[in-house]
Here is the input.
Amino acid sequence: MDGARVLIAAGATAVCCFVCAFWVFRSSSSSSPASPKKHQSPSTNCCGCASCGCRDAKPANGEMAVGGENKKKAPEPDPPEAPSMMEQLVPEITTHALSYLDYTSLCRLSMTNSAMRRAANDDGAWKALYHKDFTVEQGTINPPNGWKAYYAATKAIINLNAEFYNIIREGSLPAMSRFWLNADYVKCIHATGEFCPGYNSVMESWGLLFNWGQDGGQGIGFQIRDVRVRVLGEMAWVNMKANVDVDPLVFHVTNVYELCNGRWYMVHHHSSLMAHPAPHNMFG
Here is the structure.
């Protein structure tokens, strides 16, 4: 009887020890942190498993995965560009440098970038270019649309005036009829002194001149110099000196143009023979 009690007590003690040991082992395993994995397959997800489908992980490239879609960071703004050499120059130096360029070069420069456009459209640069190419006689005027527009208008009149003498050289009456404004107030005074008022009279005089010209109908070649142009609104006039190619006689010429329907037309032509210079002491 005593031996049975001893065996029962020993078995109960062994069972209690086994239960306590199991409880301690379970508690320690659940509370301790998981050991880091030394080797992780590239195909596993953020938690190390291959099939959990985690969507709240942050990829290595800096993009945040939200709702299965990658949301990229906003790009950082580019640093401001350093000012160009032209922008760093004193305005007076810039104007002086641009004054060495011609009309075509300034127009091309204005199409490169915004800084060059501001510099190439400078009113002082176009005023200096006008005085270099044309005349300084108009240095005191203030063109209402700026010196660039005034330069362009002056150049257009100079080209138109050169076309007038090309028509005379070619002896083309149809071209001359299109060159003049068809109006009653137009006038033409030839070097012979003939006065022709009105469009029809002017065209008749040019027809006679071309028929009388060299080689039976050929025009007359003129050389022009000292061309001076003034543009004022819708009117422009040109003063110059002209002479026939083989003739030493020099004529004073005044041509007047009018802007009509966006086109310049001649409305007045006056040519007179230049007088010989008088002696210094005309009473001596």
Summary: Strands lie at 64-66, 69-71, 187-189, 195-197, 222-232, 235-244, 251-260, 263-273. Residues 2-31 form the longest helix (30 residues). Residues 83-140 form one domain.
